[in-house]
Amino acid sequence: MSYVALRMLLGDKLKYLGLIAGISFAAMLITQQAGILVGLAHQTGAFIRDTSQADIWLMDPEVRFSQDALALKDTLLYRARSVEGVEWAVPLYFGFVKMKLPDGTRKVVQVVGLDDATLTGGPPEMVVGQLSDLRKDKALLVDATIMDTKLALRREGGRPLKIGDRVTFSDKQEAVVTATYKASRSFFWEPMVYTTYSRAKQLAPTEPKMTPYVLVKAKPGVDLHDLTQRLEAQLGVRARTNAEFDRATVNFILKETGILINFGMAVALGFAVGALVAGQMLYNFTLDNLRYYGALKALGTTNARLMGMVLLQAAVVGLIGYGIGVGLAAGLGTLVAKGGLAFLLPWQILVLTAGAILVICLASAGLCLSRVLKLEAAAVFK
Amino acid sequence: MREMEGKDMATATKNSRSDAKPAPTGLAVHCRGVTKHYGAGDNKVMALRGVDLEIAYGQLMMLVGPSGCGKTTLISVIAGILDRDEGECSVFGVDYETISQRQRTLWRGQNIGFVFQAFNLLPTLTAAENAAVPLMILGEGRHSAVKKAEDVLARVGLEGRSKSLPSQLSGGQQQRVAIARALVHQPRLIVCDEPTSALDEHTGHSVMRLLKGVAMAEDRALVIVTHDARIFSFADRIATMNDGVVTRVAAPDALTH
Ligand SMILES: Nc1ncnc2c1ncn2[C@@H]1O[C@H](COP(=O)(O)OP(=O)(O)O)[C@@H](O)[C@H]1O
Ligand SMILES: [Mg+2]
Question: B99 at the A interface (CB within 8 A)?
Fold first, then answer.
């Protein structure tokens, strides 16, 4: 009877394609929205991942995410170096500062200052020049991908910022675009520029003997969890591994910006719309076939068998629709991701979508079954 | 005046055949005082008000009567797809009230063949697949079931059309497929609701010849609901119904006076 069930389903191409389209639509919507959410979440941790040459970040206990730098005492750096299990420790400057472009327009930028001696924490990839160019006078690293967009000189006909251009900070401190880099795409909008730790402190109006972060490298074989506990106990600061800081940042941003709620709602909406469209189509399909189910019942098909038939039909459209929907979402997602928008498709999303489609199919199959099983076989003579 | 000659008819039929199988004793269908209502309150309709009917083995019984008198309801009760309210009814000695719904469904699959007025062929199955459905329900593999159904289709004059979809067949051809479906698993009782009403006289007659020729055997029985006086002559017995009761059972020539 599986054959009969499949023929009922596949025989009417138009209805069958409609059903598949409905389920695909639901699967695509859910996968797509969840993929963007995860992509955005991933992007919030971009700076931490790009700055992961060390193992542990030391920060003020009040810091909630990577761009939320609060200053620590400078002396902490030396104290950290003497904690057991620490291989090395370097300062890292981070702050939002106003920068004036050559044409006079002002931009708020994220300034990252790297330890003068080691240049630890630099961007993952250089485009023009080298990281060591930072040792040149007034040197500044600029994001190559935004020189002709966010950093273009509007008042000079939109010409791109270029190597050798001079910019000023806090209205007096001058810096020169010396080299360019490429970083992971970040959730944070403001352009990021890199310089040395000591120059960053000159450019930015900060308290003199304070540092936002200290990066700590563990000695080989030292357990990171033990080390963070030791650092926190001995220094009275917050110590987070790269992964912990990443997670804290993601959680904070998703919650505080309402992104989680918005995209959560979009996923739920995708689920609801998909459930309605697909469920209604599956239900209609069953209603259209009700008289044939009735005939099969009269001819001796038990309720258990009928249930098997309806579930088989739901499973087939569910599986095919799931495959197409996820495939479309992945294809579309890859396209938008190439364009720089957030999209990631970890296996958990595939499971989530599969679960949602399963629920949709089971619920509508259940609805159909309530009609099929209650069916009076006597209706066949009508 | 009601005539009760079922057993005699069965004996007569048996004697006219050279079948070696011993003739079954008793009645194929036995109904006494069967009632059935639909709805409740002001909408309550008494469809059957105490039907007595006996159908002997080997008998072709026709049910006639005005529209709404309860013919369809009665064959639905006899075929086990509708529960009676009161009275007794057994088919081949089985009283449906004594077995579970599931057992009854399985029993129907084995013992009853249906020819519905509206054919109810599955539109996406071929003629042969449609005719093979009862065998597949009984658990037979698709290929051998379709093979057997093709043989039956040939017997009802549809060779060469076994791969056609119902929509590619004329009304008469669809009716033949429906009949092949009722025959394919060799059920002991076949019930038909107005099998010829959609057919012209010539096709109607050939359908009746088929039913009578292929379906009848001394251990079987056939009930046909019809309005169609042109086919009365095929009946062994004709039961006339009126307002929910059987008022008369007679041989066909007695009915046409
Ligand atoms: N499902 C139903 N619900 C309510 N009334 C019904 C139903 N089926 C039949 N009836 C009523 O029962 C009576 C007998 O119907 P039926 O057995 O179909 O008669 P026939 O087949 O002789 O035309 C009619 O009055 C009909 O309107
Ligand atoms: Mg009727």
Answer: no
